[in-house]
Amino acid sequence: MASPAPIPAPDGTDRGLRARLTIPVLAYCGILMAVMQTVVVPLLPDLPRLTGASAGAVSWMVTASLLSGAVLTPVLGRAGDMYGKRRVLLLSFALMAAGSVICALTSDIGVLIAARALQGAASSVVPLSISILRDELPPERRGSAVALMSSTVGIGAALGLPAAAVVVQYANWHVMFWVTAALGATGVALIRWAVPESPVREPGRFDVTGALGLAAGLISLLLAVSQGGQWGWGSARITGLFLAAALVLGLWWWHQLRAEQPLVDLRLVSRPRVGLSHLAALLTGFAFYANSLVTAQLVQAPVASGYGLGLSIVQTGLCLLPGGITMLLFSPLSARISEARGPRITLALGAAVIASGYAVRVVDSHELWMIMAGATVVATGTTLAYSALPSLILRAVPPGQTASANGVNVLMRTIGQATSSAAVAAVLVHHTSLVGGAPVPTLHGYLLAFATAGAVALAACAVALTIPGDPGPDGTRRAPGRTRSVSDGALEGA
Asked: How far apart are CA 422 and CA 227, in angstroms?
């Protein structure tokens, strides 16, 4: 016989407690999603030995979750707008926990890759959570909550690397997946208890053709970008994938413009406030990802290289930890800047801070404290920029499309990160020297990667400043002589 549901206290204590814990629970889920994405990084050097697979096959442990996340984020965002954001959030988190259980039970590389693809569904956690916060919170609390939710991506990445490194170093590697499975199951229970179902829906028929077309096009595009360095940028496979991506995404765009209920409202995306925000997200994702990617390789380089510090995986994770703590501390500041000056200014400021952090890296990447200082400055700018992006989207789209619109914004960040990974790899491969008989990237290669990321951050700053019609903190558009609601502006496309 089922247990009776708990009866709230007459004064509403139970309901009040749940309401107070909604933001911490969603932030916990966002952090755990980011942790899940990074936990395999310390394992990559040892996985060929542990699984009996090649290094190329092992790299798909990262690629699989990247591809599935890119495809599923806008799809699940649209499903959340239609069928309920809490319901889809529970589904995505349950898939992540199930993928962790499968990874914990096997050493077969094929099954591991499939399980990691399953975990990619968790990438939709952040846009779904941001949409729930918009629907449930009053305007005065919404800005800081959305800023915190956006920062969980960097916080989780910074926490996940050292934590996973410790587990890998002192325990069986399967333990790491059992831990994430348990944390994921806890997240599912907390969502069911503390997160309300949003009443805002946009009912209709789900665009299956659009979802399949987007999946095919994105897989072709991201596969070409992520594997170009290994397969050869001029190879027939990479060329064919780029051509297939262009063809499929072109047909998909044509279908979306003609569909009665499209997966992605391209008319909305084509408006400057939304489209430029997505472009800024792509550029910011590129600039952000180079920080952790290059820093980890730089500090682990052998001392014999003349610049490397020869740090262990655990020590490398600790070097990135201050950046994660900074992101947690600066997210409220981002909300206050957005309330005072608008998220467009916060985004531009964040991109400029990212560029200044890379300038520090170019000036001095020899001393550990300078490396950590530069990485932390980049993390601070990322906090400001990432916190502002969803606020721009929330103020520019109708309430019924917030999850899908933020899903597309996260997708653009993902494409930026994938492009950053490919660009950094290409730069470092072309700037190597032999150290102890093994090819090692030169310091010039690392500095060139930093300079490239800094230049992209400046481009993101310029794009941010061109975003028109920045609304005020009260949800009205700042304009001489009159104001109007954001929802009106979003619907009119002004």
From this structure: 8
Give the pLDDT confidence score for residue 2 in this predicted structure: 40
270: number of Cβ within 10 Å: 11
Quick one: which H or E segment has residue 157?
Answer: helix 139-170
Q: For helices 85-105 and 173-194, give the axis angle rounded to 10 degrees.
A: 160
Cβ(315)–Cβ(326) under 8 Å? no
Enumerate helices (H) and strands (E) in the chain, giving the number of each: 19, 2
pLDDT on residue 269: 82
Residue 94 to residue 100: CA distance in whole angstroms = 10
Alpha helices for 171-235 (secondary structure H): 173-194, 208-231
Residues of the chain with pLDDT under 70: 1-15, 469-494
Helices 313-341/272-300 angle, 10° precision: 160
In this predicted structure, what is the pLDDT of residue 96? Answer: 93
d(CA 21, CA 190): 9
State the average pLDDT for the chain.
83
What is the predicted pLDDT for the residue at 474? 45
- Tokens at 111, concatenated: 């099954």
| pLDDT recorded at residue 399 | 79
What distance in Å separates the CA atoms of residue 405 and residue 261, rounded to the nearest whole number?
Answer: 14
Confidence at residue 431, expressed as pLDDT on a 0 to 100 scale: 85
Closest CA to 457 of 361, 362, 382, 380: 382
What single-letter DSSP state applies at residue 122?
A: G
Q: How far apart are the first and last CA of the chain?
A: 57
Element (H, E) at 417: helix 402-429
**Under 8 Å between Cβ of 175 and 183:** no
* Spatial distance between the Cα atoms of 75 and 304, rounded to a whole number of angstroms: 48
pTM of the model: 0.81
Nearest to 296 by CA among 73, 76, 38: 38
Q: What residues does 435 pair with on adjacent strands?
A: 438
